[in-house]
Design a protein that fits this description.
By secondary structure, this protein is an all-alpha fold. It has 8 helices and no strands. Helix 2 packs parallel to helix 6 (about 125-140).
Length: about 190
C-alpha cells in the first residue's frame, strides 16, 4: 500500500498538477492563443522559482524533503508563491492580459494567501488543496478531466494520510480550501468569461 500511496502522491504533487495543466493548455488549447502562452509565463515565473527555492533548501539540509513537511518552513514557500503571484497580478492587470489569465493569477494569489494564513495555525495539505483547485480550473476547458481530477483528489488525500505526511484535519482543510477557492474561480469564470 505504501508503494501505491507514493505513486499517487507523486502524480498528485502540486508541481506535477501544474505541469499537466500547462501542457494541456499549450498543446490542446489551439483555439485560444492567449491561453497557450500562459504555461510558459507560469513555468518561468512560478515553477522555476519554487523548484529552485525548495531544491536549494533541500540541498542545504534546511528542508528534509521536497514536500516541505515542516509547517514553519513552509512559510517561506508560501511567501515566494505570494510574491510571485502579486507580481504576476500587477503585470497581468497593468498590461491588460486576457480575462482568463487575470482570473487564473488572481485565483492562485488568493489560494496562496489562504493557505499561508491557515498555515499559521495548522499545516494544510498542499497536495489535496491544489488537486481540488485544479479540478475546478479544468472544468471550463475539459469537464471530463475535471471530474477525474476531483475523484483523484480523494485518492491523493488518502495517499498523504497513508504516507503519514498529514493528519486528517490537514487533509480536510486542504479539501475545503481547494473547493472554496476553486468554486469561487468557477463562479467568477461563469459571470465574466
Amino acid at each position: 500500500m505504501k508503494t501505491l500511496a507514493k505513486i499517487i502522491s507523486t502524480v498528485g504533487n502540486p508541481l506535477s498538477l501544474a505541469l499537466f495543466f500547462g501542457f494541456y493548455l499549450f498543446y490542446l488549447e489551439k483555439d485560444n492563443p492567449a491561453q497557450r502562452n500562459l504555461p510558459l509565463v507560469f513555468m518561468l515565473s512560478v515553477v522555476i522559482p519554487i523548484a529552485v527555492y525548495v531544491g536549494y533548501n533541500v540541498r542545504k539540509k534546511k528542508f528534509a524533503d521536497y514536500d516541505v513537511s515542516d509547517r514553519n518552513k513552509r512559510k517561506g514557500v508560501y511567501k515566494v508563491l505570494i510574491t510571485v503571484f502579486l507580481i504576476l497580478n500587477v503585470i497581468f492587470y497593468a498590461f491588460n492580459f486576457d480575462i482568463k489569465g487575470k482570473l487564473l493569477v488572481t485565483t492562485f494569489l488568493l489560494h496562496s494567501l489562504s493557505s499561508y494564513f491557515i498555515n499559521q495555525r495548522i499545516k494544510i495539505s498542499m497536495h489535496t488543496s491544489y488537486n481540488f483547485l485544479f479540478s475546478f480550473l479544468f472544468y471550463p476547458i475539459n469537464p471530463q478531466i475535471s471530474i477525474v481530477l476531483f475523484l483523484f483528489g480523494f485518492l491523493n488525500a488518502w495517499s498523504r494520510l497513508a504516507l503519514s505526511r498529514h493528519k486528517t484535519i490537514e487533509v480536510v482543510l486542504g479539501f475545503i480550501t481547494g473547493i472554496l477557492i476553486g468554486g469561487l474561480y468557477l463562479y467568477v469564470f461563469k459571470l465574466f468569461v
